[in-house]
Amino acid sequence: MAEVTAPKLPHAPALRRAIEQTPWRRFVILAALALAWELYARWLDNALLLPTLGATLSALWSAILSGELPNRTLTSLRVLVTGYALGVGVAAVFTALATLSRWGNEALGLLTSMFNPLPAIALLPIALLWFGVGTPSLVFVIVHSVLWPVALACHAGFRAIPPTLLMAGRNLGLSGGRFVAEILVPAAFPQILSGLRIGWAFAWRTLIAAELVFGVSARSGGIGWFIYTSRAQLETASVFAGLLTVILIGLLVESVVFRSLTRITVQRWGQERT
Hints:
- It contains 11 helices and no strands.
- Helix 9 packs antiparallel against helix 11.
- It starts with 11 loop residues before the first helix and ends in a 10-residue tail after the last helix.
- By secondary structure, the protein is mainly α.
- The protein has a single domain, classed as MetI-like (MetI-like fold), CATH 1.10.3720.
């Protein structure tokens, strides 16, 4: 009697892997948060305190059609990218000096202990005295908010590299730029990437807070100024529309930029599970 075997499903592992890699869990969580927001806002029934999700989306769409919110968003992104890039660049210089010499290591530790606990928004009055009202003051406080967490993360990543890995690189004849590019940076990149993520979040917080509290950029301001003027006019739905814009940009950057960078680096190198 012929043995009956169950049909094989060669595509089952691929299908399961595809399902696991799709961000459906994120969509479920976002849908649950949106539903909770809508239900609680309807139960509260006070648009001045908490508008519904529908009212917020309507205000968001109106601000987009008027062109005000896109212009404010581009203004914020220009200032943010400028300050973020400068902060990361200065952090790279500090980290290199700290890695190459003991004096640099002591200097970075001392400066971090002094300035890292200092809120960036607390430096804004000084920035206004030095640079006046406008973009330079915002860039200054953003650089401060980005510099220290990124420098700390990068330096911690380099210091955590196992000595055996350093010896293996030297035994392979690597030195100079090749040693840095092929040994040091890949080994420390998980911490570097975490520092870049934290610096990006701190930059957003600082920018919005500076425009909200001090109105630094005035009429040429970005999303923070949009939220500030909406609050002054008691347009709570527009306030939440501005906040929702910041959230959507954050999700986009995390999903597209940082996740792609993680996939082609630390996951590809086997330093993080997929």
